[in-house]
């Protein structure tokens, strides 16, 4: 149980931003119910909760995208109403969304001052370029960023684009910055850089609401945190006095004895053997085997070639040389078709853009890779298809009102299960999970792990790429570590530790 | 958490029912409204000769719209159909009337010409990787039109009957009892394509490619082959429409089909397909085709000048696409 002393009273009135008793309903759903939030000046305030807990709805109310049904908003002690995005902007609230609002072809300066460029001549609407670049340089200097204001945004990495967004927010004199999953696409180094920028923002008395799935980050960067569950306020916590397990318990409302319910299965025959796989500049001379009844983890830093490796095996990326043997027989994999025919299935890292056709139904997505098995005299047997899909919905516990429902209406965990059902329908013997639990909430993660357990128990070979170290350690039987496109190490789960994996991943011996 | 997801699902279900009502039946309501309105305001509208006139007018667009539907479901477009129709029709005219080729062979050549241009469109997309079918088909649209003018010296080739080839007229002008052959052909083609889209892997592939190319490819769908087939079929339908028009007009003329792509696009979009790909049905397209035909006919009956008819068609297209956008926003 959580010690009550960990929860800080919310009635305190010293808040820089104070939300009191906020409620919001949509037809059929109470998205927020009497929620409180109290953010102090110059504080990093974490906002945590599972998907659907109400975090985004609350932030949309703050940004003026939604209008609250009930409750009060106090800004620097004064009651305010936010009914449109302009209201929020005028108060000094800025949001950095997961997807950036930048125009790639325009320069950093142009992006920051878009629509409010400093003018040299008002009548002719001529832009004062010198002034604009000067002001941009000032902003970039403040953030300790070494960019040329004149360079186009196109070609900047994700992390740098995020910095431009932050600079833009500061150019609007933002006093409160909301960051929605800011690290989801960043590497470790980039995260460190982001955190140091956040530190310097704090010193400038900018408050930050930090939304993240990654609890480690909440503990590392946040001064305080507020937990939401099912649209309700649960608690405001002090990360220094709260353990990770306590926080998870607050989020899910139940204890998760085990985040990684690994069940060891019996290792069977060799299902796939990869020999000397190479692709110029990306992968060099990688050899390994995958066995039935085993989860083979693939670890490595971002950009090390993990995703590229599985894409190459799956025939989605070309290779220069190397052989792939399935059940001891060499197979030429030249396209995803040939990989699927050889018994492989890929659950891509980016479910929405590579794994699913969001606007098609659950049924169409599930049977997409196995239509050939439903044919009779050239026609799809729709009845058989329907019963097969219903079967998978039942077996994998996919929550959907009907098999005709568009996949875009399902939650992240259920979408992942639809991708899995697609490969089970095509009777894949080798399943490649690339970041299987990315963007999936804690409860659904465990379900995905249990499904993996069941797969290996049934003799499937599972290959799991993950950048989450605990996930790799918690679920893999063996761990393949990639460093700059080369196989750095293969570790058994008994001998593997975080330190061993990290030093191999960083090329340290 | 479980109950919450279900609630959210139910909520979106409600939304979709309202918006999909507009999407699925909006065109049908529009068509019914037009029919009722014209029955009241015009004495001749419901007359047998006028109705069969509408149907005849609709057949060419009916064929072109099927090809357009396939292209639009893949998130593409085929602007070349009108010009390809003209080139196929002129090819037929020259082979039969000027060169005395066997009419059946010539009709095959007409279909082959259409299919060939569609195939070229597919090749430009999948092998040359032109950025969007808009560009590829805009190019072939001009090429086909130019070739049609060149091979005919810019003047119509007329008189299949006088050239001793009345067979050519059967499809466009013939009838079985009281039923025009053209109707039967349209009906058969629509049923075939409905089955193709709903009951075959190829049909599913088209929707998947249009909905999300990367996911389709990673699901083992041969994207290039699917697109090649789609554009070849669209070309084939243009060839079929050419046979129809040649039969009805007893000639091949190089300016035929100018602007027909607009009517086909309009019919498909009014029929509920989305420019962003992944959706669209044969039934919806049939309604779209009828709506445009009735609209054009009605404007004539109401003595609206031709110039204003064009304006009206434009307004209907914008209206239909606006409804499509509203539907997307509702989701």
Automatic annotation (TrEMBL), chain A:
Principal subcellular localisation of the protein: membrane
Alphabetized CDD domains for the sequence: ABC_Carb_Monos_I (cd03216), ABC_Carb_Monos_II (cd03215)
Residue stretches making up the ABC transporter domain: 17-255, 266-509
A cellular-component GO term for this protein: plasma membrane
A Gene Ontology BP annotation from the UniProt entry: monosaccharide transmembrane transport
Pfam families cross-referenced by the UniProt entry: ABC_tran (PF00005)
One term of GO molecular function: ATP binding
Keywords, sorted A to Z: ATP-binding, Cell membrane, Membrane, Nucleotide-binding, Repeat, Sugar transport, Translocase, Transport
Record keyword Protease present: no
Subcellular location: Cell inner membrane; Cell membrane
This protein's record includes keyword DNA-binding: no
Membrane topology term: Peripheral membrane protein
Protein's name in the database: Ribose transport system ATP-binding protein
Organism: Pelolinea submarina
Source organism phylogeny: Bacteria, Bacillati, Chloroflexota, Anaerolineae, Anaerolineales
Automatic annotation (TrEMBL), chain B:
Cellular compartments annotated: Cell membrane
This protein's record includes keyword Membrane: yes
Membrane-traversing stretches: 21-46, 66-97, 104-124, 179-197, 227-246, 282-302, 308-326
UniProtKB keywords: Cell membrane, Membrane, Transmembrane, Transmembrane helix
Topology of the protein relative to the lipid bilayer: Multi-pass membrane protein
InterPro entries: ABC_transp_permease
Protein name (Swiss-Prot/TrEMBL): Monosaccharide ABC transporter membrane protein (CUT2 family)
Organism of this sequence: Pelolinea submarina
Entry GO CC: plasma membrane
MF (Gene Ontology): transmembrane transporter activity
């Amino acid at each position: 149980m959580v010690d009550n002393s960990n929860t800080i009273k919310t009635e305190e009135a010293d808040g820089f931003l104070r939300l009191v008793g906020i409620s919001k309903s949509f037809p059929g759903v109470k998205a927020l119910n009497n929620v409180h939030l109290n953010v102090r000046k110059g504080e990093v305030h974490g906002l945590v909760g599972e998907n659907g807990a109400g975090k985004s709805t609350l932030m949309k109310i703050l940004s003026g995208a939604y209008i609250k049904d009930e409750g009060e908003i106090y800004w620097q002690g004064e009651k305010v109403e936010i009914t449109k995005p302009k209201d929020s902007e005028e108060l000094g609230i800025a949001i950095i969304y997961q997807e950036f609002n930048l125009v790639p072809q325009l320069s950093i300066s142009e992006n920051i001052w878009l629509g409010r460029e400093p003018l040299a001549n008002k009548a002719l609407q001529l832009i004062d370029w010198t002034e604009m670049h000067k002001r941009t340089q000032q902003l970039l200097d403040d953030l300790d960023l070494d960019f040329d204001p004149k360079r186009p945004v196109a070609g900047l990495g994700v992390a740098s684009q995020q910095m431009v967004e932050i600079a833009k927010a500061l150019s609007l004199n933002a006093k409160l910055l909301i960051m929605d999953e800011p690290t989801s696409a960043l590497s470790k180094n980039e995260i460190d850089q982001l955190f140091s920028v956040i530190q310097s923002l704090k010193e400038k008395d900018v408050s930050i609401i930090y939304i993240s799935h990654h609890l480690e980050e909440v503990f590392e960067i946040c001064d305080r945190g507020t937990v939401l569950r099912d649209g309700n306020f649960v608690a405001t916590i002090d990360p220094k006095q709260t353990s990770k397990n306590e926080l998870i318990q607050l989020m899910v409302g139940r204890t998760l004895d085990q985040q990684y319910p690994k069940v060891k299965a019996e290792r069977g025959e060799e299902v796939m053997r990869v020999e000397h796989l190479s692709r110029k500049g990306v992968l060099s001379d990688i050899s390994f085997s995958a066995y039935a009844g085993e989860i083979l983890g693939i670890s490595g830093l971002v950009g090390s070639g993990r995703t590229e490796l599985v894409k190459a095996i799956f025939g989605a990326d070309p290779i220069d040389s190397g052989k792939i043997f399935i059940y001891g027989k060499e197979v030429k994999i030249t396209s995803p078709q040939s990989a699927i025919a050889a018994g492989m299935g890929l659950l891509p890292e980016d479910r929405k853009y590579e794994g699913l056709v969001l606007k098609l139904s659950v049924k169409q997505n599930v049977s997409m890779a196995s239509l050939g098995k439903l044919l009779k005299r050239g026609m799809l047997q729709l009845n058989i298809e329907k019963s097969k899909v219903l079967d998978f919905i039942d077996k994998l516990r996919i929550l959907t009102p009907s098999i005709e429902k568009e996949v875009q209406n399902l939650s992240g965990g259920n979408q992942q299960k639809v991708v899995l059902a697609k490969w089970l329908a095509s009777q894949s013997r080798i399943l490649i999970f690339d970041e299987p639990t990315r963007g999936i909430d804690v409860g659904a993660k465990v379900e995905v792990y249990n499904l993996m357990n069941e797969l290996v128990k049934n003799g499937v070979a599972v290959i799991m790429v993950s950048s989450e170290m605990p996930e790799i350690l918690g679920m893999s039987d063996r761990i393949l570590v990639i460093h700059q496109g080369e196989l750095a190490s293969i570790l058994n789960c008994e001998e593997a530790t975080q330190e061993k994996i990290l030093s191999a991943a960083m090329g340290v011996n | 958490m479980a109950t919450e997801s279900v609630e959210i699902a139910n909520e979106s279900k409600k939304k979709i029912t309202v918006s999909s009502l507009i999407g699925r039946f909006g065109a049908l309501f529009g068509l019914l409204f037009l029919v009722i309105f014209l029955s009241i305001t015009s004495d001749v509208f419901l007359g047998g000769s006028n109705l069969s006139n509408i149907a005849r007018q609709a057949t060419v667009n009916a064929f072109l719209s099927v090809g357009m539907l396939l292209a639009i479901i893949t998130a593409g477009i085929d602007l070349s159909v009108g010009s390809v129709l003209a080139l196929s029709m002129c090819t037929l005219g020259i082979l039969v009337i000027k060169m005395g080729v066997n009419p059946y062979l010539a009709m095959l050549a007409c279909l082959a010409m259409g299919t060939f241009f569609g195939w070229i469109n597919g090749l430009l997309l999948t092998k040359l990787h032109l950025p969007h079918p808009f560009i590829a088909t805009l190019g072939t649209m001009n090429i086909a039109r130019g070739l049609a003018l060149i091979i005919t010296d810019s003047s119509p080739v007329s008189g299949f009957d006088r050239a001793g080839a009345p067979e050519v007229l059967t499809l466009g002008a013939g009838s079985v009892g009281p039923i025009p052959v053209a109707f039967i052909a349209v009906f058969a083609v629509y049923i075939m394509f409905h089955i193709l889209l709903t009951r075959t892997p190829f049909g599913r592939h088209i929707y998947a490619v249009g909905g999300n190319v990367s996911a389709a490819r990673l699901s083992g769908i041969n994207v290039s082959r699917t697109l090649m087939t789609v554009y070849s079929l669209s070309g084939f339908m243009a060839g079929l429409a050419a046979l129809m028009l040649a039969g009805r007009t007893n000639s091949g003329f190089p300016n035929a089909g100018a602007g027909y792509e607009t009517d086909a696009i309009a019919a498909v979009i009014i029929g509920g397909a989305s420019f962003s790909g992944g959706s669209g049905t044969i039934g919806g397209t049939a309604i779209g085709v009828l709506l445009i035909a009735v609209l054009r006919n009605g404007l004539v009956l109401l003595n609206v000048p031709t110039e204003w008819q064009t304006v009206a068609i434009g307004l209907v297209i914008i209206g239909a696409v606006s409804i499509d956008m509203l539907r997307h926003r509702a989701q």
